[in-house]
Protein: Outer membrane beta-barrel protein
Amino acid sequence: MTKNTIRSLFLVFSIFSCSLVMAEVEDIESIESNSHFYIGVTLGKASSEETFHNVFTLMGNEYSKKDDNTALGLYAGYNFADKWSLEGGVIFVSHLNKRPSPQPIEEVYLTVFTFTPIIYIDLNDDLSLFVKAGLGVLIYSEDYHKHNDIFSLGSGDSWAGGGLALGAGIEMSVSSDIEFRFGYDYIKAELEADEENHLQNLTTIDEEFSLISLSFHYKF
Structure:
């Protein structure tokens, strides 16, 4: 586990602890009557930038690439008295640009996991602002295809790491059960290579990820 991941986990724990303290000062009956579980889907535009360190040049130069792709995701959480939530989610981004590589890259994709407390600021009965901060875990993956029927590389290589996940947006209730959300998310992390990666892919990647999204969820 990297130092950045440890710092991120400590920050998430601190935020979570503060959220629990805030919940304690709420009226218990109000919390029970207004709290609910929810699950939703996300569609958005994801922007990512990867900086590869010393992976495929004899001189050891860095190489960076940028992508703008469609992102799909799922999320679920528990809302406490319409004041704050604990939420987890996953975002999938496929068809990323391929980098120059001695490996026969077939497909490149990014998977993003988040766990964040969310604080709501009511504007009126149906509209509220929200801010969130927590842990984001990113997994950058490359799938390879066979050179021929005799010699084959492994199925692919991957890099993973954690960082601070930040977000903000606006949420609107359209019925007693359905809410829409427009939001922005940002994560920056250092991704470490999986120990089973090919030799030239054992160094780190600096990853910046942002997402502009439209989501809706159902309240139970």
User: Anything to note?
Assistant: Helices lie at 3-24, 28-34. Residues 161 and 191 are 4 Å apart (CA to CA). The first strand starts at residue 36 and ends at 52. The two ends are 36 Å apart (CA to CA).
